[in-house]
Input
Amino acid sequence: MPSIHSEILVQKNYSASANEFLQRRPALFIDNEWITSTNGTLIPVVDPSSGKEIACIVESTSHEVDLAVSAARRAFDDGRWSNLPAEQRERALHRLADAVEAKSEELAELEAIDSGKPKNMVASVDIPAAIRTLRYMAGWPSKLAGELQLHPEASPSEFHAFTRREPVGVVAQIIPWNFPLLMLVNKIAPALAAGCTLVLKPAELTSLTALRFADLVQDAGFPAGVINIITGSGTGAGEMLSRHPDVDKIAFTGSTAVGKLINHAATESLKRVTLELGGKGPVILLPDADLQTAIPAAAQAIFFNSGQVCVAGSRLFAHSSVFDQVIEGLAGATQFWTPRAALDPEAIMGPLVSQGQKDKVLACISEGQKAGATVAVGGDCPEGEGFYVNPTVLVDVKPEMSVVRDEIFGPVLVAQRFDDFDDVVAAANDSHFGLAASVWTKDIGTMHRAIAGIKSGTVWGNCHGVMGPGLPMGGYKQSGFGREMGREGVEAYTELKTAMIKLQ
Ligand code: NAI
Ligand code: MG
Output
């Protein structure tokens, strides 16, 4: 008899539509057609809830990378997308949003099977966010134009000067495995709104929803070559894309280490680069914080998506006067975050994405313990074939420990106490990262001082992880450069041309 505990870790049966999709011949989406691999090398697809191999994807060769880039190049150069009336591009993006909406259920299941994210979380968080991004970005083509400029020394009747926002060209987009479909949409929607054509490579651990999405591209009537989706490893297709001379811009989300490699590779042809990299987000609970709200929110900030979130709140700083109460509250909250198989309708937290990620997270925890950290709750993994790790809180940590300095990317929180406001701001900034932070206080002055003092692309006040397509997002320091989303996120896919006409 399996115990109750292990039953919740047994993956449910897949639906008929998921099984049908998994039986498809592995292929790449290039020039609006499905291309099967030329050399036959495949990468296995694993369900993290069961640890079982369930399908394969193509490891693209340099030939296939070239095919995809040249399809995007042709589609860009002849203006079949960028030269369409803005209204037509807006409609195409709305049709894509409609298509994702219509297939929400199926996409949520595939994502759960491939990534270990609970299906209900995908359906209630990732997919609505993806649809919101597509609709928000659909509004941009008709608004990106340029400005009339004045030559400061000449009369306006003598010179007509203006700027034009033009699409940057062919874009390569490389994305990670923590929000596979949402990240895909967050990458392609602004690029398309700006008039670019693209080649996107999903993470090799989570390519299924990207491939299913390619069907929707065909249905939505995009011209051939505008959106190309190829699968493969980072050191294979990823590296080839980041070196490809015909790629004008590279947009990457993933680890800081790979971000640096991509930035180097892009230098050869001076590609434009935007990087969304790692984080080690501070969550600062000041003594007057509303703990009723702050404690469950701090738990969510680290345990949501099993902590595999670049903006996770992974370093907690609680004022000494509330520290013990906060740790007790967090320990209680871990019940809510008990791991379950991703297709379990009650799952809030699933397994980690891979055996490798599970091993990495467990190694980080034991390294922390060796360095003197104490496990307040968790620290281990439940029995089962899948890649589960229990929600973990470490105390007695020191600023120099690797568990405090490095991104763990798992459900592991390190908690420290503080007494003084300036000290905690300095401690929050004592990091190579600067992606996201949250501050909890009822005092508006303290809130503003904290926001000004923290070196981070985003600072949340009395909430954590709230994002939207209109809000620019990106990193200070080694968390990346450039901003995604909002006006800045669309402009990041443009070149600005200045034109000056001497009137005759
Ligand atoms: P990764 O950075 O290697 O993978 C992200 C993407 O980059 C994947 O599509 C991969 O195929 C591609 N890639 C890998 N090497 C490449 C190369 N040399 N050139 C071009 N593309 C390349 O992340 P990985 O190894 O899967 O995860 C390791 C750690 O990275 C995690 O534990 C976490 O700390 C961090 N990470 C951070 C993410 C974030 O959103 N901040 C997302 C994923 C991972
Ligand atoms: Mg997978």
Q: What stands out?
A: The CA atoms of residues 213 and 323 lie 46 Å apart. The two ends are 91 Å apart (CA to CA). The pocket of NAI (ligand 1) is lined by residues 174-176, 178, 201, 203-204, 233-235, 238-239, 242, 253-255, 258, 261-262, 277-278, 310, 357, 360, 407, 409 (CB under 6 Å). The mean pLDDT is 97.
